[in-house]
Amino acid sequence: MHPRWISERAISAIHSELLREHGGLEGPVNDDMLGATLARPQQLQSYSNPPATLYQLAAAYGFGFARNHCFKDGNKRVALAAIDVFLQLNGHELIASEAEAVFTIQELAAGTIDADTLAIWVEANSRPLG
Question: Where are the alpha helices (DSSP H) in the chain?
Answer without folding.
Answer: 8-22, 31-47, 54-68, 75-89, 98-110, 115-124
